[in-house]
């Protein structure tokens, strides 16, 4: 994705005059009226579009798991730790997306207003093609930022109505009315869908070169192969496409159909399932599930061989890769020169079934509390570093026991685990942090994985049609979960637990939610999932203390959330400034 490095460099060059685009408000007009901007100059509005990409909040892992029952942190300054410990307020909000998303939307609105005024290239026909493409990207990005705003700030106002956020669809300047009321959740969803449909109609399915003009979609009219590749070719992989817009629509529909939001809009579970299926069917449905998708982060040969902008089978949209060791530096155990920051909980460990597919609480599972990691779902040891397992480039044995003699031991030093576990998922074990011989390795962050879309389909299809229903599609929730568990190495004996769940929507719901918890762990989903499900937020975080090889479950950290915290707050300062903004119920 060298072209992304190039265009971001261009953005950095041309956007210095608009860095104060949002605050103070007077700057909103000055950027386009200043002497630095020549109307029709393509660099300036393109830099504005790139600013939208630059504000995507998915460019790194937030580890909001620390605010849930899945993890704690040994970093006392971790904002999600503070949030879980009762310090979440309307003016101290680690999940705030208000400023970032509205700044992005302001840029995108300006871009949409300028596109048709710009001569993108000397060839008029090609210039119109670029304008078409950039409009599609801007609409798709605007929809995505409204989705982020809803996820962080939508909620029930004091009057009981489910509200979204103000719908700002035009550039705001010195004469604009900033005192806007929140739109209904339904109107916000309609706007998101509208923007995504525009994006899909304007953009190609993917940015790929074509071999001949017969492959050009009819919507672009009569143009040549070279012109098409110039605008929509493989040089632009990594930017928003029609396929990505379709996936964002599935994500938004899942949120809207969920228990926390369903009563405030008309999106149904069937809508969410069908939206996900549209994307999955482009990959062949169930057969498109990547065989190595669960370990996407450690498929080292695949990652190292990635061409610029190319995606492995598991990934729909991702960031560019970078050479670094940041995740490992933060999360390797102390004996591997790491800070051991993210500590998976016993709660999460207990959520992994046995290899035969049964939960460890089921009498048929064969679980042995004295040997808790034997015969378990293979994902457990792939995602969580348990006592006695090996890690790092030399395969070092890690002792997390309370009576361990190294700094890896439970609560030994500040960088030690607080739960008896260290993070393994996302980390490349071929990274060396030894200061005498450190190295970096390729890493990237997914924006959207195909497994997420399979799980969206499974959850929505089960709710819409039951475990075995398919609606107008050719596969069921049961089919998806069976494929995911089989890929993981679970239920190789025929998976009798899954077979039993196939006869009951509630049992399948619990199984699907658990599979989502495991497959998407530490990728920024658990925090949002608990809230959209209106599930229990205050499950105590637990760990394990091992002495003389005998494990004992211990309490590690309380979760101090109030019931109204299923919805996040409107920023306190915004409510103070603008009388038309209603705060969500319970927040002050």
TrEMBL record:
GO terms for cellular component: cell outer membrane. This is RagB/SusD family nutrient uptake outer membrane protein. Residues 63-211 form the SusD-like N-terminal domain. It is found in: Cell outer membrane. Belongs to the SusD family. It comes from the Bacteria. The keyword Signal applies. SUPFAM superfamilies: TPR-like. Residues 335-587 form the RagB/SusD domain. Pfam families: SusD-like_3, SusD_RagB. Keywords: Cell outer membrane, Membrane, Signal. The keyword Membrane applies. The lineage of its organism: Bacteria, Pseudomonadati, Bacteroidota, Chitinophagia, Chitinophagales.
